[in-house]
Amino acid sequence: MCVWVAGLLAVLFALNLGQIRDIPGAVMVQQVMLCDGSTCASGEMVDLPFFAPIRFDLQPETLHMRVTLQQTTSPDGLNALYFPKLSDNADVWVDGQLLHPNTLPRRLWNTPLLVPVPGPLVETGQVEITLALRGMQPEGLDLQPFFYGPKNLIAPHQAVRAFFGPGLARFGLGLMGILAVALLVIWVFRRQEREYLWLGLACATALITLVHFGYGFTPTGYRLWTVMLVLSASLYVLFILKFLYLFVGISLPGLETAHAVALLVFGVGVMFFPPEYAFALSMWGNVAITVPSAFLILVVIWVYRARMTRLDFAIFFPCLSIAMVLGIYELRMSMTNAPLRTMHLFHFMPLVMSMACKWLILSRLIHSLRDYEDLTASLNNRIIEKSAELEASFAELADIRQREAIAAERGRIMLDLHDGIGGQLVSTLSYMRRNDVGDDKCRLALEDALRDLALMLDSMENHDSLVTLLGMLRTRLEGLLSENGIEFDWQVQGEPRPRNTGPSQALNLSRIVQEAITNVIKHAQADTITIYVDESRIRISDNGVGFVADDRGIAENPSHGLANMKRRSQSLGARFSISSSSKGTDVMLDFA
Q1: 366 SS3 class
Q2: Looking at residue 463, what is its pLDDT?
Q3: Confidence (pLDDT) at 559
Q4: Would you place residue 307 in the very low, low, confident or very high pLDDT band (cuts 50, 70, 90)?
């Protein structure tokens, strides 16, 4: 990590942004006379850049300087003096006329100064330029090489430097103000998400730095403003630290507490020192508190980089590194005489860091939108599935209601058959027996009709259980079998499971079994009928004389009872087979 930071610092120093270079067509002033008094009657020549020694004295210091240049261009045009960097302010005279009075209390340490020089003011020959450099002794006064020449040549250079200096600081001031208000408003409505609070406070803290770099004003007393300005960077780091811990999901309360306590103790301590020491002590406070904390943030982000997406880490870590390097670069310029470093870059730091933090929030928003879209798609799929289930449930419910209606209607029909036709048959048989009228064939026909009606009613009522249906059939036929000297041998091993079910299929099964038993009574000369039932088959066997029958014979005589049995078995989804010998006959219904 140290190598990474050192490498970035080396690159920044190698770039030497804002280095003062010759302007073609203009005179670069690199030596002036430092006067002994305000009249500049005497003095010594000093090279530029010039740095006045730092003195711990709150009284403003004024240094008088003079330089005489040869007028090499026509005085008819508009010339200008261009001061890329000076601290803190200056009065400028040209040939004894004051062209730029100082703007104190506004300080120009970060603002390039352009002083127009009207052509008629100077004559061809010599131009005498006198300066009164003013500034605060605890921070030191300095003057970098400056230029004299046609305004149209040097004004663009001043405009570029002003854009990257106070211009960007003022832009950042407006941007940070808007962001601070927006983030704090968001936090008010989303109190549980404190990331917005700390990021909003960081943006608000950056306003102090940006006001100083953009306008050079000192709104409060010198000591209070100096402490606020210099330590605002440390406070900014603290708020960014708390934002990152919440955003990444890291808990290092010891580091936060140590930074906050050190900042509080140092800030309060500086207020008890003489005000002339405020600037120097605040700078050393940044060296002792802000720089180590910023470095630890880099280490923490590197260690916990797995908790961030690759893109978030690739954007945030370099931005955080650049912000730290800009801070170290500014400390180097402010605490030492750096003759080749003439442009302040610290006001870029809030912009870089804030944009990185805004990216993290935007990234979270993007991920939240993706999660929302995934959740929405998942919910839509669930809705589709549940809708299909509801449709199936409604269809099933409708089918159940339809079956209930059919069952109710079937019950009504059964009741009508039982009470109507059944009652009439029973009454007729009773009348014939009681009055001994009619012949036996008529009586037997009526009994067969009554049994057949009972069979139909049983099939409609007991279609859900074929074993129960067969039991009812056994009860109905036992009297007839007993009259013919035939015994039942019932062997029930399980509930048959035909492929096709329902009242009609139950009636078909009853007809098959009834037909088989009727055939035994009429033709087999048997004394025992065996009915075997399990889940996959029903077998009706007898011990009669048997007969000869094959599928061809059944097919050629459709009216034959066996053909009807085969057709009914097909509607059941069962395989029908029959075998017969002198030992008896087997009728098989196979449901497997």
Answers
A1: helix
A2: 57
A3: 43
A4: confident
The whole-number average pLDDT for the span 434-457 is: 67
Q: Which of 227, 315, 241, 229 is nearest to 274 (CA)?
A: 227
CA distance 199 to 31: 48
Lookup: tokens for 392? 């199936």
pLDDT at 132 over 70: yes
Q: CA–CA separation, 65 vs 45, rounded Å?
A: 9
Instruction: Output helix, strand, coil percentages for the chain, rounded to the nearest 5.
Output: 60, 15, 25
The two three-digit tokens of residue 230, written as one number: 């210099």
Residue type, 59: Q
How large is the greatest C-alpha to C-alpha distance in the chain, in angstroms?
169
CA–CA separation, 233 and 181 (whole Å): 19
Q: Is the pTM of this model over 0.70?
A: no
What b-and-e string marks burial along 385-422, b requiring 16 or more CB atoms within 10 Å of the CB?
eeeeeeeeeeeeeeeeeeeeeeeeebeeebeebeeeeb
pLDDT in tens, 317-358: 888 888 888 888 888 777 776 555 578 888 888 888 777 777
How far, in whole angstroms, is CA 41 from its chain's centroid?
74
Structure tokens, 49: 């850049």
Cβ neighbours for 304, distance < 8 A, ≥ 6 positions apart: 248, 250
d(CA 204, CA 542): 105
Rounded CA-CA distance 186/200 in Å is: 9
pLDDT at 147 over 80: yes
- SS3 for 221-277 is CHHHHHHHHHHHHHHHHHHHHHHHHHHHCCCCHHHHHHHHHHHHHHHHHHHHCCHHH
Residue carrying the six token digits 């600037």:
279
Residue 164 or 549, more confident: 164
Mean pLDDT score across all residues of the chain:
81
| Residue 235 CB coordination number (10 Å) | 21
Q: What's the sign of the alpha-carbon dihedral 54, 55, 56, 62? A: negative
* pLDDT exceeds cutoff 80 at 43: yes
Beta bridge partners of 375: none
Whole-angstrom Cα distance, residue 360 to residue 391? 45
pLDDT digits (tens, 9 = 90+) for 513-528: 888 888 888 888 888 8
Q: What is the distance between the alpha carbons of residues 414 and 90, in angstroms, rounded to a whole number?
A: 120
Q: Which helix (H) or strand (E) holds 151?
A: helix 151-162
- DSSP assignment of 442-466: HHHHHHHHHHHHHHHHHHHHSTT-H
Give yes or no for a contact between 243 and 195, defined as CB atoms under 8 angstroms apart.
yes
- Provide CB contacts within 8 A for 472, sequence distance 6+: 458, 462
Q: By the 8 A CB rule, do 495 and 467 touch?
A: yes
Number of helices (H), then strands (E), belonging to the chain: the values are 16, 18
Is 120 exposed, middle or buried, given 0-12, 13-18 or 19+ CB atoms closer than 10 A? exposed
pLDDT in tens, 297-306: 888 888 888 8
Going by C-alpha positions, the residue among 47, 44, 45 that lies closest to residue 36 is 44
The share of the chain scoring above pLDDT 90, in percent, equals: 12
Count, residues in the chain: 592
Amino acid at position 70, single letter: Q
Residue written as token pair 């020491």: 277
The DSSP call for residue 119 is G
